[in-house]
Each structure stands twice: as C-alpha cells, then as structure tokens.
Design brief:
The protein is α+β, with helices and mostly antiparallel strands and 289 residues long. 70% of the residues lie in helices and 9% in strands. The radius of gyration is 31 Å and the shape is elongated.
Length: 289
C-alpha cells in the first residue's frame, strides 16, 4: 500500500514536471477520444434512425384490378398466416387515391384530370419487430410474391438497406480513424514518458545503485501515462457532450452515448496512456544511467 502511494505521488509529480510534453500528450488523447466519440455519436443516432425506419416499415402487396370478395378473403388469410405477421390491412383503390390526394395537399387538383383511378388495391402488412431486419423483410416479400393474386410487393427495401449500409460504413470508418488516432496517442504518450525518464535519469541511477528493481522504477511512469490517458479521455468525452448539446441537437441528434460507451472511451484513453508509457518506460529506464 505504501508503494502504491509512492507510485501515485510520483506519477502526479511527473505529470507536472512534464510541462509542454505532458500537455501535448493529453491533447493528443483528447483529440483521439473526441474524434472517436463524435463518430460513435453519429453511428448511435444513425442506428436509432434505422430502428425507427424499420418500426414504420409496412410490406405492401398489390393486387390487380378489382378482386372478388372471395379472392380478397383468400389473399388476406394467406398473408395473415405468414411468419411474423402482426396485422394486415386492406387498402382499396378508392382509399389509395384518397391517401394520394391528402399527400399532394394543395396540388391535389391535378387528380381531377384523371378519368379513371390508376392506383391498385393492396394489403399492408405490419411485421413483428424481430422480422424487420433486411433479410427477413426480403424473405417476406418473396413469400408474398408467390401468393396468387399478388402482382407486386414493396417495402422500401432500397431505403432501409441504404440506411443500414451508411451505419455499417460509418462504424468501420470510425474504427479505422479511432485505431490510427489511438496509435498516434500511444506514440505521443510514449515520447512524453521518455522525456520524463530523461529528466529524472540521475534519480533513476541512484535508485538502481541502492537496489531498486526496474519494475519499481518503471511503475511511476506507467501511472503518469495512466493519468495522461484518464485526463485526456475525460476531457474528450466532455467535449463530445458539449458538441452534442450545442451542435448535435441542431442537426437532429436525438440521444447521447449510453453511459457504458462514454466510460469505455475514458477507459480507452487510460489504456492508451498505460500502453504508451509502459513500453517507453521499459526501454528508457533500462538504458538510463
């Protein structure tokens, strides 16, 4: 316990003595966590957007002409029996035209030029949440196309798949950017710790003379790197929240990161600091004379 207190005191002392080197290391970690946090914030809100879009998706099966009641009953019974079907609603040709009239608003007068209703009747199918994935929606569409009397099936496939692809690309891009910045942070923290070792080379030499192990000498520098990472990670997360509270809400961001995510970002900063300081201290303490 006494050694732990010594390591912590020396870690804080090294952080203060590091001056511009320590400040630069903290700033690099801040930048890394800030960029990664913003990417995660974008991905998180895109995920929510995709989930909301899927929740509103209806699979629409169009039927040709004016089917007889018996044919409509057969189609509705068949569709209702599909896996994942929550509700089925029939939309007649007249109802489809009225919906279009409402959608056009002030331009609805254009429909008065139409002599015959060109819109088909359809069945709108609401799926259970677990059946709203891209794969299962596609499977449902294929099953509906096989139902006698159904001429075409639509569920906004391109739109849902495009949103999902954007989320996937944003996530991968965030991982690449985060990895590059994390590596840069490791190197900068390592340089800051190496400078700290150099500044304390005489003290390290004395510790070696009196029998201190390399591990004992190295640990305060690892604590210093840990402090750099924690400080940089915390500031980075705070800045991400500031951006969310000021700019994010203006562009439609609905939610901040879950607390597990921002704790993970702070932890990532600490890990970057520990890794950078460990390897820098291990090499430079060994060579210090």
């Amino acid at each position: 316990m006494g050694n732990l207190g010594y390591y912590i005191r020396e870690g804080f002392s090294g952080l203060r003595r590091g001056g511009s080197g320590s400040a630069g290391a903290v700033l690099t970690v801040v930048l890394s966590i800030l960029v990664l946090g913003v990417v995660l914030l974008v991905v998180r809100n895109l995920q929510l957007l995709v989930e909301e879009a899927r929740a509103e998706v209806e699979v629409e099966a169009y039927v040709a002409g004016d089917p007889a009641p018996t044919e409509l009953s057969y189609i509705e019974t068949t569709i209702t029996g599909l896996p994942g079907a929550l509700a089925v609603r029939y939309v007649s040709k007249a109802e489809a035209l009225e919906e279009l009239r409402v959608m056009l608003g002030d331009d609805s007068y254009l429909l008065s030029e139409i002599e015959e209703n060109p819109l088909p009747a359809s069945f709108r199918l609401t799926m259970a949440p677990e059946y709203r994935t891209d794969e299962r929606l596609a499977q449902t569409a294929e099953q509906l196309e096989l139902v006698p009397g159904v001429t075409r099936v639509s569920y906004g496939r391109e739109w849902v798949e495009s949103l999902s692809e954007i989320v996937r690309i944003a996530g991968l891009g965030g991982l690449v950017i985060g990895g590059v910045l994390a590596l840069a942070s490791v190197l900068v923290v390592g340089n800051a710790v190496a400078l700290s070792v150099y500044m304390r080379r005489e003290e390290i030499t004395i510790l070696k003379v009196v029998g201190a192990t390399h591990g004992f000498i190295r640990r305060p520098f690892v604590v210093e790197g840990f402090l750099v990472g924690i400080l940089g990670g915390t500031i980075g997360v705070v800045l991400v929240y500031v951006l969310y509270a000021t700019v994010g809400k203006l562009v439609g961001a609905e939610t901040f990161l879950p607390w597990e995510w921002w704790l993970g970002l702070v932890g990532l900063g600490a890990l970057v600091g520990v890794i950078g300081s460990f390897f820098a201290a291990a090499g430079h303490v060994h060579r210090a004379k």
